[in-house]
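Please, structure for the following, as tokens.
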Amino acid sequence: MKTQTEQHRHECEARYVLNLPFADRKPYLEGIGRRRGEVAKAALESEVRKQYKLRKEAA
């Protein structure tokens, strides 16, 4: 697995969001929307959901 790709960075950021306390996730994602735009926010939210499912399946 290549660790210097945009996809890897995206997955790592999604796992970071999952590790945040629940109350901090929404403000973090809203900040992403302000800085990078709503498309980036939606993409990250989608990846967070994907990583959540993968985490649940592995448990």
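Residues 6-58 form one domain. DSSP finds three helices and no strands in the chain.
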